[in-house]
Structures are given as C-alpha cells and as structure tokens.
C-alpha cells in the first residue's frame, strides 16, 4: 500500500514563499519518480514539477520555471516543492504524485498514486 501525505500549504501574500512537503509511506522510495501537480479553482489538474528516481533530474512547467524548486530526500522518503515569488495565479490545491515507470512525466494519468492535496492561497 502506498500513501502520500502533503503538508505546508497555507495563505501567503503575493511575492511570498512556501515550502510544500510530501512524505511517502512506500517501500523502496528510491524507485519512484515523483511529481507535483496543482488544481486551480474551476480548472483541470496541471503539472507543476517532477523529479526522477534515478538521477534526481527535474522538469518544470513553464509557468513556475525559475520560481519553484523540486527536490527529494531518499533518506527521509520525502519530496519537497520550494515556491518563491508566489503569484495569485498560483492559488490551487497542490498534489504530490508517484510514478513507478514514467520519469519526468507531465501527464496525471501516468502517475500511480496521489496524496490528498494541500491548499495554497496567494493573496494580491
């Protein structure tokens, strides 16, 4: 059984920062490619960032490139999303996801497991 638990969301003013964490309750965390997605109000879920299991290579959506940083700690079975320079349009529920096969995937259907989500609200 795989369980992903996100934390770190909240309310922040535009220009501020937040750090999201996702703790994975899973065997062999080192084998999982990890990603962050978000779902803004009234919109579809969208890709934010991904980090590979093999070489820790990263992929970012154009909208967050240069502002967000994804990282992972295999010792702690965790993946993080450092978000700087937050904008009101970053407001969304943020989800952590795990994929057994697809490295750096931007497609939600290629992830096998999802967390429950954490709300991020950016005020203007």
Describe the structure in your own words.
This protein has 124 residues and is mainly β. The protein has no helices and eleven strands. Strands 2, 4, 5, 6, 9, 10 and 11 form a seven-stranded mixed beta sheet that branches. A four-stranded antiparallel beta sheet has the order 1-3-8-7, with no helix packed on it. Strand 4 (33-39) and strand 5 (46-51) form a beta hairpin. The chain is globular.
Essential attributes:
single chain; 124 residues; mainly beta; seven-stranded mixed beta sheet; four-stranded antiparallel beta sheet; 11 strands; 0% helix; 49% strand; globular
Write a short abstract of this structure.
By secondary structure, this protein is an all-beta fold. It has strands spanning 3-7, 10-13, 18-25, 33-39, 46-51, 58-60, 68-73, 78-83, 92-99, 113-114, 118-123.
- Flag low-confidence runs: none
Number of strands: 11
Largest sheet: 7 strands, mixed
> What is the terminal separation in angstroms?
40 Å
Number of helices: 0
Question: Which secondary-structure class do the elements indicate?
Answer: mainly beta
Radius of gyration: 13 Å
- Oligomeric grouping of the chains: single chain
Label the overall shape: globular
Percent helix? under 10%
How much strand?
Answer: over 45%
- Average predicted confidence as pLDDT: 96
The helix/strand series, from N terminus to C terminus, equals EEEEEEEEEEE
């Amino acid at each position: 059984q795989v369980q992903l638990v996100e934390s770190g969301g909240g309310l922040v003013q535009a220009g501020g920062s937040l750090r999201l964490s996702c703790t994975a309750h899973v065997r062999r965390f080192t084998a999982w490619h990890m990603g962050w997605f978000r779902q803004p109000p009234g919109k579809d879920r969208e890709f934010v960032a991904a980090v590979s299991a093999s070489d820790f290579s990263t992929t970012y959506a154009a909208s967050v490139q240069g502002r967000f940083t994804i990282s992972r700690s295999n010792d702690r079975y965790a993946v993080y999303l450092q978000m700087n320079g937050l904008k009101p349009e970053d407001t969304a529920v943020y989800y952590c996801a795990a994929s057994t096969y697809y490295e750096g995937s931007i497609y939600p259907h290629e992830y096998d497991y999802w967390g429950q989500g954490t709300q991020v609200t950016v005020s203007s």
